[in-house]
Amino acid sequence: MADASVPSFKAADLVIELSSTPKNKQDEVTFGNNFTDHMLTVDWSASEGWQAPLIKPFGNLSLHPACSSLHYGIQLFEGLKAFRGDDNQLRLFRPMLNMSRMSNTAKRACLPAFDQSEFLECIRRLVEIDQDWVPHSDSGSLYIRPTFLGTEQSLGIKKPAHALLYVILCRVGSYFNSGAESLSLWADPKYTRAWKGGTGNYKMGGNYGCSLFAQYEAEDHGCQQVLWLYGEDHQITEAGTMNIFLHWINEDGEEELATPPLDGIILPGVTRQSILELTRKWGEFKVTERYLTMSQLCSALKQLRVKGVFGSGTACLICPIGHIVYQGENLHVPCQDKKSQLASRIAKELTDIKYGRTASDWTFLV
Ligand SMILES: Cc1ncc(COP(=O)(O)O)c(C=O)c1O
Description:
By secondary structure, this protein is α+β, with helices and mostly antiparallel strands.
């Protein structure tokens, strides 16, 4: 339902210019390079408000060199996917959660509000136009990248009076190409991804740019991703660009699936929320949002109380973690045999919903 109280562009005003030179549709080799034929753009200015949304051939942007997103990182993005079901129907997974996270991030970035349902309808139209790009396979999907930039043409640091909202699409396969069954993480408290009062719980580009250096140091230590720690007690927060879950027998002897709480330093993942809701509905074990520290994990590993650790996110869905390098030790994290593994069970249930094998109100039809 459109929210009339928010001044916004309207999907009914969409202007559509189709490409006359559609590209060859290659299969995805590396993540994020295989862009479709069209993009959506919507301009905003403080003086004129939102302009009509436009779907046009995919192409470069023209930005003023003083543009505030380039200088001060007044920028944010989202990430969601379209899946082609066995019934050939295209589905998005809980896209209103992405719309809402994007609106929250826009507010924090001093970028203007928009009507989330109107924006989602524009995205739906874009995906519909480029629908032939959605792979006919259940390992592939179409990645949707909404982006929002401050386009203020001035070096002054201020709330932008000009902004550009746009969406690009690319065909994607599997996110991790290492072929490994589980991920290795490097945990060193010298780097921090997010801090209280900062922007770690918002999807701003700067959060990712400043994490790159640590990512390469993780690779120097033979690991694939960073396990981000926080505070004196080395709290476990996120794994690379994924939320993290620990499935264990907790200190009180109870079986528990635990993930850190949304206290401002954790990105509120759509997959995270879905895993919490799904497993709480099963009612088979305790499901909690609680602080977890490296010392708790190390003791649990020693006492053989850990059943599994996994990351979650739109890009990879569920990714089991097999090793953590911490304070000079390579900690082996057990993964139960494939069939009984909780990570596989959750991944299957979510995949069945995304590809329409299980009916669910978590899907949004294109
Ligand atoms: C830092 C971070 N954590 C977690 C996630 C997982 O979020 P989601 O499940 O919405 O993809 C992402 C990906 O968006 C991320 O960038």
